[in-house]
Amino acid sequence: MKVLGIDIGGSAFKGAPVDTKTGRLLAERHRVEIKSPCSLRAGVAAAREIARHFQWKGPVGIGFPGVIQDGRIGAVGNLGDVWVGQSGATLFRRATGCPVRLVNDADAAGLAEMRFGAGRGRKGTVILLTFGTGIGSALFYDGQLVPNAELGHIPWRGKPFERYAAASVRKRARLDWPEWAQRVNVYFATVERLFSPQLIIIGGGVSKKSDKFLKFIRAHARVVPARHQNDAGIVGAAMTWEQ
Fold first, then answer.
1. EC number(s) on record (predicted)?
2. Distance between start and end Cα atoms, the chain
């Protein structure tokens, strides 16, 4: 099955056609920059541009950075509260002219990694954490997804942990890799106390630079980079049509 996968982040919409049987992108991904928070008009226009870029007429799967229940958007992080309560499936269907399914963006990345990547065949508790503008998370037990597990919002010193350890914080605070890894270690210690995972998969843009920070990571669980790296969200969004 060929599906257009779109991964929405805090700084861009990224999309590409996906072969959902193999997890392969069928074309070079197309990226549309946005500002965060993002207006409804700008977000809809970005999705429309991606669909037009590929001249797409088939099904579309979208990974959205917020809680998703039956195509409707719940709590939203960096994209902004204007999206809360919207029927995302309806908005993006009108924008693209195609049938659309929505899923939480980190859940999408997790689905891709559990089927085609670092989590394939793994039992027990597996957590995927995407480090970018914020911290997205996907929680699995024996291969089954627990939807909308927003572990980046675990409180730390009165604020969500993602404001302390996201990849965007490393850049903004000008932290070197060991300094940022120390913050991630504090976060991992909390996540491990709560969920006792056997495997932690690191996704998002930093997964392409795992050689710079993994050697500084300390955790009881095995910690590995996402095999699909920053394309996992696109692949997993497309996979919603097989769920």
1. 2.7.1.63
2. 12
pTM: 0.93
- Domains of the chain (ranges, CATH numbers): 2-107+232-242 (3.30.420.40), 121-225 (3.30.420.40)
130 in Cβ contact with 168 (< 8 Å):
no
Nearest to 203 by CA among 95, 103, 113, 71: 113
pLDDT of 118 reads 96
Q: How confident is the model at residue 26 (pLDDT cuts 50, 70, 90)?
A: very high
Supply the angle between the helices 40-53 and 88-96 in degrees, to the nearest 10.
50
Comparing C-alpha atoms, which of 64, 187, 208, 192 is closest to residue 127?
A: 192
Instruction: Say which residues have a Cβ less than 8 Å from residue 212's Cβ, sequence separation at least 6.
Output: 177
* H-state helical runs in 54-166: 88-96, 105-116, 162-165
Q: pLDDT-derived band of residue 213, with 50, 70 and 90 as boundaries? A: very high
Joined together, the tokens standing for residue 16 give 């590409």
- Strands (DSSP E) along the chain, which ranges? 2-8, 12-19, 24-25, 30-33, 60-64, 66-69, 72-76, 100-104, 125-131, 135-141, 144-146, 155-156, 159-160, 199-203, 222-225
Tokens standing for 10? 């805090």
Residue showing tokens 């991992």: 188
pLDDT of residue 10: 85
**Three-state DSSP class for residue 77:** coil
